[in-house]
Amino acid sequence: MSLNTAVPEDVLSDESSFYGDDDTKQEFEQREKIYDGRADWLEFQQNSLASLAYKTLHPPSETIKLPSRKRTHPHDGQEYCWQIGEPIQEFTSRLQPSNAKTADLGPWIRVRNPFTPEKTGEDIAQFVSQGTTLLHDFEDDKSNLEVEHARSNAKSTAPLTRKLNMMRKELEKKLLSIARKYGVTVGKWMLFEPPGQIDDYWTTIAAATSRGELGIQAKVATSSSSSSNNDRVICVYTHDCEDKDDVRHVLESLVGLGLVREGQRPIYYKCDAWTYLDIKANNPWGLKASMYSSKDVLQGKL
Description:
Distance between the termini: 92 Å
Strand content: 5-15%
CATH architecture of the domain at 88-118 and 183-299: 2-Layer Sandwich
CATH superfamily of the domain at 88-118 and 183-299: RNA Cap, Translation Initiation Factor Eif4e
Order of helices and strands: HHHHHEHHEHEEHEHEH
Number of helices: 11
Structural class: alpha+beta
Helix content: 40-55%
CATH class of the domain at 88-118 and 183-299: Alpha Beta
CATH topology of the domain at 88-118 and 183-299: RNA Cap, Translation Initiation Factor Eif4e
Shape: elongated
Oligomer: single chain
């Protein structure tokens, strides 16, 4: 019996219904338009041969269960963020801060601690609104005190200085209280490094963060046309700026990695609340721009 069976020409022609009728084709074309393959790509990356081989050759010091891919995170699918399952060496080689441009990637390259859940519940807008009101109230009270002092013809400014210092301490307490109320508790250690060293520092910090050995996440500034030759900042985040034990632990980890050395140039810790309110050095309220310095913490003054 011959196996060569003739196939009618209209069965596989462009005019046939092999691809489905018009409604079916339209449905699948619509599915193709809205399909977002990033989640499937992440799952593939976690189970790719390269990733599995790397995990086999470089087992963790202890078995730790990675969080499920089904728990979405703002970093998922973002080019400038490390993806869980992606070998960290590939990520840091692919995105080197010394070559990464702000115009291409945005201002930051980011790595998160995969063993720490995403922080939720922040209401930054409410915090900024109420915090700004407190700063304005302080400015008004400060101006009134200075006017009263000038009218008093007092020979010494010591009484005025004491009152202002007390007001600043009270202002700081109120700002931190409001920050906690609205969940704005995160803070970061900041390292400023020259372009020639930024890749080495970032590679070390990114790897340690991906292993869960530092804070909740880390980020490094990309290069803009106006700052290509300036020191670049790396931020290493902790979950709570008032959790002094954790703040100290992360700093000691940076020391252990050889990135911070006692007796050399200190690094500083700043809370995100101050960043959102644009509280910098030499601000008009006289507030300290940073909460802690590595020098004080390492000397046991925290």
